[in-house]
From TrEMBL:
SMART domains: EAL. Gene3D superfamilies: EAL domain (3.20.20.450). This is EAL domain, c-di-GMP-specific phosphodiesterase class I (Or its enzymatically inactive variant). GO terms for molecular function: cyclic-guanylate-specific phosphodiesterase activity. PROSITE patterns: EAL (PS50883). It comes from the Bacteria. InterPro entries: Cyclic-di-GMP_PDE-like, EAL_dom, EAL_sf. Coiled coil: none annotated. Residues 25-274 form the EAL domain.
């Protein structure tokens, strides 16, 4: 796993006697680092489809199996403070993306979330260079997609430069969490993204909120004019799916299509979505939004 990291930036596990305060890592972070190496931190995959229910790719999410419980990211990511652990986590998900791209012969893309801490780090570029070398087909670099949160400060040193370097390397870059409740910036002028993802919070409200619906429509038009993707997260009902489809959204992610699934369920998830696609094709509904 850590072969993706430059040697001088590989995390060092630190163990101290009870009561010691000299270690670099808190007990929580030591437990997290050990969990990554032991496989207790693991990936799950949520599909992204087009309007015809065809699978286009997967977002890689993470879980931590701890003390018999499956923990969500919100339960442990806020406790990660050390740069080494953020780099370790990033290397972990990039490694998983490479593994899946190779295993599926590039049929789908696999998207990872770039932590704010790592966004401007040269270690990220080094990891991606190594990842491209590990792909069975180097032209499949565009199948390794990177998502940056809208709240990431792209004016911070190295962030814009990293994004441009990744795009030159063949990767697609998406702006995540668009119009979230924590939205403070929309860096479309500073960076040209390859796609935009509507946050679940606005997808939850737009059907009954004209202002939110107008924001979505404005982003759709912007994406159409610039020939980039517009993906909606949190699509959990046919009503939302159809309304977003009519608005011109091109990608869909959420429980109406599928929740996050384990690695061994990827093929079955694609088959189930393909069955839905075949059904609308058979009934003549393909290409229409209800």
């Amino acid at each position: 796993l850590t072969r993706l990291l430059p040697r001088h930036q590989r995390p060092v596990m630190v163990w101290n006697p009870p009561g010691s305060t000299n270690g670099r890592l808190s007990p929580e972070e030591q437990a997290f680092e050990l969990a990554v190496h032991q496989g207790h931190v693991f990936p799950v995959f949520q599909p992204v489809t087009d309007r015809h229910y065809e699978t286009k790719g997967f977002e890689i999410l993470i879980r931590w199996r701890r003390d018999g419980q499956e923990m969500q990211p919100a339960d442990f990511l806020p406790n990660i403070r050390s740069p080494g652990n953020w780099l370790l986590l990033t290397a972990f998900v990039i490694s998983e993306a490479v593994r899946q791209i190779n295993a599926t012969a590039g049929d789908w893309y696999f998207a990872i979330n770039v932590p704010a801490f790592v966004a401007g780090s040269k270690a990220l570029i080094s990891m991606l260079e190594t990842a491209r070398q590990q792909l069975n087909d180097p032209t499949r670099a565009e199948r390794l997609v990177l998502e940056f949160s809208e709240t990431t400060d792209v004016s911070r040193s190295g962030v814009k430069e990293n994004i441009r370097e990744m795009q030159r390397g063949g990767h697609r870059i998406l702006l995540d969490d668009c119009f979230s409740s924590h939205s403070v910036t929309f860096p479309a002028r500073q960076v040209r993204f390859n796609g935009y993802k509507l946050d679940k919070s606005i997808v939850d409200t737009f059907m009954h909120n004209h202002h939110d619906a107008s924001l979505i429509q404005s982003l759709v038009v912007y994406c159409q004019l610039n020939d980039v993707e517009c993906i909606a997260e949190g699509v959990d009902s046919p009503e939302k799916f159809n309304a977003l489809c009519r608005a011109g959204v091109t990608g869909f992610q959420g429980y109406y299509l599928s929740g996050p699934v384990y690695r061994e369920s990827l093929d079955e998830t694609v088959r189930q979505l393909q069955t839905r696609h075949n059904n609308i094709t058979r009934t003549g509904d393909a290409g229409t939004c209800k």
